[in-house]
Amino acid sequence: xxxxxxxxxxxxxxxxxxxxxxxxxxxxxxxxxxxxxxxxxxxxxxxxxxxxxxxxxxxxxxxxxxxxxxxxxxxxxxxxxxxxxxxxxxxxxxxxxxxxxxxxxxxxxxxxxxxxxxxxxxxxxxxxxxxxxxxxxxxxxxxxxxxxxxxxxxxxxxxxxxxxxxxxxxxxxxxxxxxxxxxxxxxxxxxxxxxxxxxxxxxxxxxxxxxxxxxxxxxxxxxxxxxxxxxxxxxxxxxxxxxxxxxxxxxxxxxxxxxxxxxxxxxxxxxxxxxxxxxxxxxxxxxxxxxxxxxxxxxxxxxxxxxxxxxxxxxxxxxxxxxxxxxxxxxxxxxxxxxxxxxxxxxxxxxxxxxxxxxxxxxxxxxxxxxxxxxxxxxxxxxxxxxxxxxxxxxxxxxxxxxxxxxxxxxxxxxxxxxxxxxxxxxxxxxxxxxxxxxxxxxxxxxxxxxxxxxxxxxxxxxxxxxxxxxxxxxxxxxxxxxxxxxxxxxxxxxxxxxxxxxxxxxxxxxxxxxxxxxxxxxxxxxxxxxxxxxxxxxxxxxxxxxxxxxxxxxxxxxxxxxxxxxxxxxxxxxxxxxxxxxxxxxxxxxxxxxxxxxxxxxxxxxxxxxxxxxxxxxxxxxxxxxxxxxxxxxxxxxxxxxxxxxxxxxxxxxxxxxxxxxxxxxxxxxxxxxxxxxxxxxxxxxxxxxxxxxxxxxxxxxxxxxxxxxxxxxxxxxxxxxxxxxxxxxxxxxxxxx
Length: 739
Ligand code: ADP
Ligand code: MG
Hints:
Helices cover 48% and strands 14% of the residues. By secondary structure, it is an alpha+beta fold. β18 (602-605) and β19 form a beta hairpin. α12 packs antiparallel against α14 and α13 (403-429) packs antiparallel against α14 (435-472). The structure holds adenosine-5'-diphosphate and magnesium ion. Magnesium ion binds at residues 103-104, 213, 246.
């Protein structure tokens, strides 16, 4: 557990899933074979099989075939990584591969089945068991969950799923997602809950879950902070961050034929993944000094894990069937390259953004506050005692411990309340007081009681808060208990030992294999010329086949390269065409002035890495709009004699108007019938003139549009719609026509 400064390679393992029902039913040939003991994988390309090509062989840290168990993978490959996270290293696990090859199965697995749980749930168990067995350490565990889809980051734990988050970079904490929510979790159940919520949100945002999940990257982040007393008698905090990454499917998205928006979408979908490939290539190339981390969100976010200070494991998932062989080979080549990435893992000790420190300080502060409250009470209590005549003024309370503090507190409140109640009753029963005075006194007492209650509540709240915060800091054996019994524990240990042994055996075998070839050449002595010829021929054959394999590999890579290049050229063509169109529009339809204005408002946002426009209203920075021409309407004529400025001065330049946010006022339209009825109803009684014989006037009162021209009906002089107070809005019908 030394703070190793030495570099170590990214660990790469390959896992091949079993044939699925469909593949078996369709009778697909299996083209992948694995040598688990040696960590080798052989792929026979059916296309080239006839041309008696040897199978392609790849060697990895370990390989897992279709019989591999989740727990074996965990014990052999992931457990050491999670262990180092618990020591304060950053760790990352990537699952890479074509869609449907078992990335999600490896990362999450089937949650309900303990046998088939993936790395993420297994790591929960591991982390909390570790904490429960720890001594003299305080832990804080929190989890975040995010997704990158089309280069947009979504917080899978936030309430607002429509929001997109941004990446920020700070020298002290590095690249991080701004406003990403994280949940402090106290147990396996709680962190599982967090994961479930995230998974639900993941599918909520997706119109087609299968397609969405195959095109997005999901990152589950567990941060484990541990505080421990160092040899220098100071508390030290180590922070380990575990990134669990389920990458988008590595199959190439078809971009051919796509145009405009669709093309942009298609290029964006796998941008992060191809950027990841470029970063890996640049890292292992050795010649390039520039590593294009900034090309995508994923690579920026996981910069530490690739050539940085984290420990990294990559799981390359493949399928065994013949129709997948191209993708399988691509994946294996990709993984083969990643093997050569060198990281320099480092323990994060006392980082500035440790949440545990903030927690500890906050708890201390609250406790201090609580103590002060108690102190105040104590003083009051003593004062009260003294006022009582000092009957039991002996300092009995001196040796008070924290334990009887609680009890004491409760008693104190009760006492106070009872006292106030007694006083209140005394006032009620006191007949010598005038009613008014009594009411006044009672009011005062009630206020006091209210204050007392409030104070009590505040104290309780504070205590609850302290308790809550303390419960989040996990301490082994106390607030998190290990339930496994001795037997299970031994079993666990044995399993881990076996895993370690297997790993070592594999390493040794790989080394032996390499050495065999070397020593063969050195040690050989030949008894006859014929033997020498035989042996050398054999060797030659071996070397020749090796050469062929390498040549074949070169051909393959070339082919792949060419097809990639063609695709890129096509994209470039499309983009150039689009650019030309935009330029044409710009040249032919946008006046030069406007163009200048716009271009002077443009600026490059370093944080966002995109071009943006400054708002128009910020005049002080916008010189083109600052100076008003002197000849502007209502102002004096130009003073300048300089011919150069004259022309400018008489120009009236149109101002950039900000977009309007208001509307013209429009009177509400009232249906004329309603208006007439209303007006009628609101007229005062004596103003109503009724003339049953005059049909035209009655008609005028009710016919629409003639209301204002009506001659027979007097005006009420009151605005319609505002009845005087007391007048009902709708008076009783009064029968306008007398009998
Ligand atoms: P991906 O996430 O790479 O698209 P999935 O993890 O969804 O692929 O796997 C596709 C299917 O294959 C799932 O039904 C899964 O249960 C199954 N599967 C994958 N790997 C294995 C394995 N090692 N053993 C058994 N079933 C597997
Ligand atoms: Mg998946």
